[in-house]
Amino acid sequence: QVQLVESGGGLVQAGGSLRHSCAASGFTFSSYAMGWYRQAPGKERELVAFITSGGSTYYADSVKGRFTISRDNAKNTVYLQMNSLKPEDTAVYYCNKYPAFASWGQGTQVTVSS
């Protein structure tokens, strides 16, 4: 079955950086677009970025120029490099294919202090 295991969250000061990784299994990773999503307290989960199987990328306006999504098909892993972090980036971050499977991993908490 589909498994998505996120890692890399943490507590960081505003302006800092973090890098997420997501190890995927249970499906043909290289054939799917993969995305990073986030859910802040009291808010709906939102798409942050996705990368197609061919490597094209999309970013939400709120993270454009600060976040970079990448993938390594040999490792079935998708990454999210987050720079110039802001307090409003505080959320639980999830990976999933794009569009998302019904099941989600546990996510990884990012807290950005001002």
Present the secondary structure layout.
Elements: E1 3-7, E2 10-13, E3 18-25, E4 34-39, E5 46-51, E6 57-59, E7 67-72, E8 77-82, E9 91-97, E10 108-113
Parallel strand pairs: 2-10
Antiparallel strand pairs: 1-3, 3-8, 4-5, 4-9, 5-6, 7-8, 9-10
Question: Could you provide a short overview of the structure?
Answer:
The chain is mainly beta and 114 residues long. 0% of the residues lie in helices and 50% in strands. Strands 2-10-9-4-5-6 form a six-stranded mixed beta sheet, with no helix packed on it. Strands 1-3-8-7 form a four-stranded antiparallel beta sheet, with no helix packed on it.
Structure description:
It is a single chain. The chain is an all-beta fold. The protein is 0% helix and 50% strand. The chain is built from no helices and ten strands. It has strands spanning 3-7, 10-13, 18-25, 34-39, 46-51, 57-59, 67-72, 77-82, 91-97, 108-113. The strands form two sheets. The chain has a six-stranded mixed beta sheet, with no helix packed on it. The protein has a four-stranded antiparallel beta sheet with strand order 1-3-8-7, with no helix packed on it. The protein starts with a strand and ends with a strand.
